[in-house]
Amino acid sequence: MKKFLVILTVFALLFTVVACSGGQETGGEGSENAGGDKPTIGVTIYKFDDNFMSFVRRAVESNAEGKADLILNDSQNDQAKQNEQVDMMISKGVKSLAINLVDPQAAPSIIEKAKAADLPVIFFNKDPESAMGTYDKAWYVGTAPEESGQMQGQLVVDSWKANPDWDKNGDGKIQYVLLKGEPGHPDAEARTEHSIKKIKEAGIEMEELELQTAMWDSVKGKELMDAWLSKHGDKIEYVIANNDAMALGAISSLQAEGYFEGDKFMPVVGVDAIPDALSQIEKGVMVGSVLNDAANQGKATVELALNVAQGKDVLEGTSWKLDDNKSVRVPYVIITLDNIAEAQAAYE
């Protein structure tokens, strides 16, 4: 009898531990935390395995901890899947939505869903642009895309002028290749246009050897760089990438060809200033990047989504400001070895 009572007591204790261990669950598709008094926010990320968005997601989760319960979804770069996830989150009674669109053109349909449910929505990272004007409970957290292009262009200008030996053929022009992000994406288009425009405004002539999309992806960036090196070889004088993932792919290709050893060097710049890129800047391999502040994008997204979920003014208790398009614009920063600590601090 004593043995039976001991076994019964052990099972009771195990049940108690299991029942009390249901902490916040985020990060998986459709995961949620059934919380007490905390509002539930429905969040979608266009693709969890996107380098930059993985840091935004981490910032969203850390800033929501103890303040809100999240239903967090990976849309897997599929707009139809994201639409279904929004329907699911609405049916589960979320108090606000935070949407990183797969396709910015889908913003009107997301807004219609939110409007029908009288739900506030915070778009982030991918700008829905004019669609927000159709709904008074829609806002955006992101950046000014042209600013990153201008800063990247300035980075090229400063580094080129400081290193006249990079002009291999001495013709006074930069023979460059450019790795572009997703065609039609506001960031890809603005970074491509404004980086080159800024360089030309500084009086530097440019000769485009190649410009193709690598879809923000490091593997595709390496494949394109492999092909360009095979075709152009040492005629390439500068590699400009719309983001760090593609820049890192290009660096991998260049390293396989003996670059960054001895005197063999190729200037490469990106955008985002993700940790892997910062490591390459520290090593003197990558010239620099432009900090796309993932930590503050995630923080601002949660702060706004939490406010509107609780029926407060969207900016209450925050330091953010809205522009004329109902958008919070998190500023970019040029990052080189001289101020790399500023970017590293964004990931602490």
TrEMBL record:
GO terms for molecular function: carbohydrate binding; metal ion binding. It is found in: Cell envelope. The ABC transporter complex is composed of one ATP-binding protein (MglA), two transmembrane proteins (MglC) and a solute-binding protein (MglB). Residues 1-21 form the signal peptide. Keywords: Calcium, Metal-binding, Periplasm, Signal, Sugar transport, Transport. The keyword Repressor does not apply. It holds the Pfam family Peripla_BP_4. Residues 41-313 form the Periplasmic binding protein domain. It comes from Irregularibacter muris. Coiled coil: none annotated. GO terms for cellular component: outer membrane-bounded periplasmic space. The keyword Isomerase does not apply. This is D-galactose/methyl-galactoside binding periplasmic protein MglB. It comes from the Bacteria.
